[in-house]
Amino acid sequence: MPEKKPKKKAPKGTVKKLLRFLGAYKWRLAFSLLCSAVNAGLSLYIPLLFGRCIDLIVGPGNVDAEGVKRKLLFSGGLILLSALGAYLAAVENNRVTSGVTRDMRNAAFRKIQVLPLSYLDSHPAGDTLSRVVNDVDRFADGLLLGFTQFFSGVITIIGTLALLFSLSWQVALTVVLLTPLSLLTAHLIANRSFRYFQRQAAIRGSLTAVTEETVGNLKTLKAFGQEQNAGRRFGAVNTDLKAASLKAIFISSISNPGTRFVNALVYAGVALTGALSVLDVLGGGLTVGLLTSALGFANQYTKPFNEISSVFAEMQNALTCFARVAELIDAPGEAPDPASAAEIGRAEGNVELKNVAFSYDKSREFIKGFDLRVKKGQKAAIVGTTGCGKTTVINLLMRFYEIDGGEILLDGRDIRDITKKSLRGNVGMVLQDTWLKNASVRDNLLEGCPNAADEDMIAAAKRTHAHSFIKRLPQGYDTLLGEDGGSLSQGQKQLLCITRAMLADPNILILDEATSSIDLATEIKVQKAFDELTVGRTCFIVAHRLSTIMHCDVIAVMDGGKIVEQGTHEALLAQGGFYAKLWASRSG
Questions:
Q1: Contact, 396 vs 339, CB < 8 A?
Q2: Cα separation, 400 vs 397, whole angstroms
Q3: Which end of the chain has fewer CB atoms at under 10 Å, N or C?
Q4: Lowest model confidence (mean pLDDT) among 319-333, 521-535, 549-563
Q5: Cα distance between residue 124 and residue 213, in whole Å
Q6: Is the distance from CB of 466 to CB of 492 less than 8 angstroms?
Q7: Number of other residues whose CB lies within 10 A of the CB of residue 379
Q8: At residue 56, does pLDDT exceed 70?
Q9: Burial of 280 from C-beta contacts in 10 A (0-12 / 13-18 / 19+)
Q10: What does the mean pLDDT of the chain come to?
Q11: Which of 314, 331, 333 is nearest to 201 (CA)?
């Protein structure tokens, strides 16, 4: 895979988009920050108490046992209260993270449902799946880590500086002067690691896509003996992922030792400056106990830099993953219906395509000058060679794609003036590619007509000759099907899809190679059921098997995106043109 040059920063507006998701949890975040502040504040005050305890026992005859006891008991209470603050902050952080990731997945899934086919056709399904599952998980890990350590670290840094200035401005100034070294180290490493984490996320999506493609088509790969080629392709992407991951992990891993080295310099500077202050060389009058407190503050001050530097790398990875999910969520959906679009009831079924033009690539014509008129109750077949535009016409009828020119009329009304929902609610579709969800047979059949009675469902199944094999299933209509129909044969899955369309009882039917996976004997029976079902209904049939469309009222023969012939079966044969050649070369 050719290496893409990584970007240096998250896409513009990423943080603003993240804040939109966090906005619903602002009160939980505020409570979490309050608990973190309590935890950090008490953690800072405790070393000060210990320093004062030391001052109560330093020097001959200067031991105040009661004072030491009181301060130690008070310190113990503060430690418990600090632990409670840390616990409550962690609980709220988990709740916020879980809520945000749930909202992100819901938003991504809702967007997938309204994405235009042009998006789905141009993006690998595996990459989209990786964004919804893997990227959200990695974002959640980084977000939780950030909430847990980042905010408390910032509070600790500010608090320790304030306490150090209250003890000795000389010591505090030493810390302030050395701090930029930690910040610079963390910044340089974080910027570089983000670029590699971004590349890692992109390659991970490609790996998911390759894996899904291989698993979903394993039978075909085995049939053509392409296992080794598939393995090499997977191995190449996997190797790229390994290289990107190693670079990202290596760069991010050096942040901790780098900042630790700088922090050791800070500690040494505090010790030296504080010791000189105790000896009154620099002035300031630090006591031995307060010097101990100052050294404790120096440790607490530098510790967040170690945590933040490592957390920052994780948060960069999280932001990268969030940006990929946000890109999906913000992708333009289907064009909304205009305000003038109307809901329609049950359509009569008169369909007319007038001078329709459409192209996937706007620089090159595909469908052009397409004219077809189908009256209520007529059956229209669309035939032609592979790639001539048959299925594209169906996509235009359903408004999966919008036409570039001309118009498509339903009962005399332009379908662009009808809401997509009501348009599609008037159409039943049976496609060559079957779709069955992971549910019972009953749930799958009721998909298009949820309120249908059992009697109607069984009647439809009997008409498609699906009832007999359904009754042989372990729990009949209540049998749970696995993913994509489980162990059902392709023909059985197709029969269920045909039954589902029959049960919906629409006035317009679209059959796109609907019987392509059914044996000839069953096809004859199903064809009779279709003949019965299509009485009084408008029907569009896309078929390669010309024997199935002989009795259609009109046959539109397509070639190169245009209708080159149109008529009945007998009339087209008599013309001796393109259709007659297709008929002569038919295989069934």
A1: no
A2: 8
A3: C
A4: 521-535
A5: 9
A6: yes
A7: 22
A8: no
A9: exposed
A10: 79
A11: 314
Instruction: Say which amino acid occupies 139.
Output: F
Q: What is the pLDDT of residue 409?
A: 92
Length of the chain: 588
- pLDDT above 70 for 62: no
Scanning 346-453, the segments in alpha helix (DSSP H) are 390-397, 420-425, 441-445
The residue with tokens 């077809």 is 372
Percentages of the chain per state (helix, strand, coil), in multiples of 5: 65, 10, 25
| pLDDT given for residue 22 in this prediction | 82
Q: What three-state secondary structure class fits 555?
A: strand
Structure tokens at 242: 């390994």
Q: What is the pLDDT of residue 588?
A: 45
Phi, psi of 10 (to 5 degrees): -65, 150
Q: Please, are residues 398 and 391 in contact by the beta-carbon 8 Å criterion?
A: no
Name which of 533, 507, 553, 548 is nearest 378 in CA terms. 553
> What pTM does this model have?
0.64
Go through 4-14 and write b for each residue having 16 or more CB atoms within 10 A of its CB, e for each that does not. Answer: eebeeebeeeb
Which tens digit of pLDDT belongs to each residue from 14-53?
A: 777 887 888 888 888 888 888 888 887 787 777 777 777 7
- Note whether 522 and 465 are within 8 A (CB): yes
Helices and strands, counts by H and E, the chain: 21, 10
For residues 399 and 114, is the Cβ–Cβ distance under 8 A?
Answer: no
Q: Report the distance separating Cα 293 and Cα 28, nearest Å.
A: 33
- Report the chain's C-alpha Rg in angstroms: 35
What is the residue-wise DSSP string for 16-73? HHHHHHHGGGHHHHHHHHHHHHHHHHHHHHHHHHHHHHHHTT-STT---HHHHHHHHH
According to the 3-state scheme, what is the secondary structure of 208-277? HHHHHHHHHCHHHHHHCCCHHHHHHHHHHHHHHHHHHHHHHHHHHHCHHHHHHHHHHHHHHHHHHHHHHH
Predicted confidence band of residue 519 (pLDDT cuts 50, 70, 90): low
Give the pLDDT confidence of 74-117 residue by residue, as tens digits. Answer: 878 888 988 898 889 888 888 888 888 888 889 888 888 888 87
Ordered alpha helix ranges (H), 336-471 = 390-397, 420-425, 441-445, 454-463, 467-471
pLDDT of residue 194: 67
- Evaluate whether 329 touches 135 at the Cβ level (below 8 Å): no
H or E element at residue 406: strand 405-410
Looking at residue 492, its pLDDT comes to 81
* pLDDT for the residue 4: 44
Alpha carbons within 13 A on the beta-carbon side of 263: 23
pLDDT for the residue numbered 12: 58
Q: Which amino acid is at 45?
A: Y
Residue among 568, 560, 567, 564 at smallest CA distance from 578: 564
Q: pLDDT value at position 494?
A: 80
pLDDT at 263 over 50: yes
Three-class SS of residue 563? strand
